[in-house]
Write a structure and sequence with these properties.
Blueprint (H helix, E strand, L loop, with lengths): L1 H14 L1 H7 L10 E4 L2 E5 L5 H6 L7 E8 L2 E5 L2 H9 L1 H4 L8 H4 L8 E8 L2 E5 L2 H8 L2 H16 L4 H10 L8 H13 L6
Antiparallel strand pairs: 1-2, 3-4, 5-6
Helix pairs in contact: 7-10
């Protein structure tokens, strides 16, 4: 079993070299949910306009025409105005947990995060890996937020996302629930009339 895990880890490591570079920049804001795009080694959230979440309350795709660099990461915006706002105060607009799925971070796993599935909580931007992940997080938002903040602070921030992901996929947190478990819990909460918070 150990040998199989080592082989699987080596294959994942080699297959993800480009993504590993994109997601683990040098600087104070790392790891991040970034991808390589053309000549740009790391584009945050596939170019989503971070400022639009705060100023317009919606997801908007940015363009390379309006881009900025911060902490060795490229950020794209839908307008010159949004770029200017970001440039004045970049840290105000950064998504929590490096833009990774907040529900994954609650399990110590920096993985996923779709820019079009998000939520503002107390003036901060949280990204999710799809509606199912957001629904699962909202089952007990306060508890899951506390767990995510703890794992981010104690295990993830400033460390390599791939090694952390591998570690927590093999050595799961005590409160781990599978995707199927979470889907059943969400379905049960909806059957009772909404979110269980």
């Amino acid at each position: 079993m150990k040998r199989l895990l080592l082989i699987a880890g080596a294959v994942l490591l080699l297959a993800g070299c480009g993504a590993m570079t994109a997601q683990n920049p040098s600087g104070g804001y790392t790891p991040v949910n970034a991808v390589a795009d053309g000549d740009d080694a790391r584009v945050m959230l596939k170019g989503a306009d971070l400022v639009a979440y705060f100023t317009e309350g919606k997801f908007r795709q940015g363009t390379a025409q309006f881009s900025s660099r911060y902490e060795n990461i490229s950020f794209r915006f839908a307008s010159a105005e949004n770029k200017a706002l970001f440039d004045k105060q970049p840290s105000k607009y950064l998504p929590e947990f490096g833009g990774y799925c907040a529900n994954g971070i609650a399990y110590g796993i920096p993985w996923g995060g779709d820019a079009d599935t998000w939520k503002m909580i107390k003036g901060k931007l949280y990204i999710f890996g799809g509606q199912a992940s957001k629904d699962a997080f909202e089952l007990d938002e306060q508890k899951n937020l506390a767990l995510a903040e703890s794992y981010w602070k104690d295990e993830i921030a400033g460390h390599n996302s791939f090694f952390q992901r591998w570690k927590r996929l093999v050595f799961r947190v005590p409160h781990y629930q599978s995707g199927d478990d979470l889907a059943r819990a969400v379905a049960a909460a909806k059957a009772k009339g909404g979110k269980a918070q």
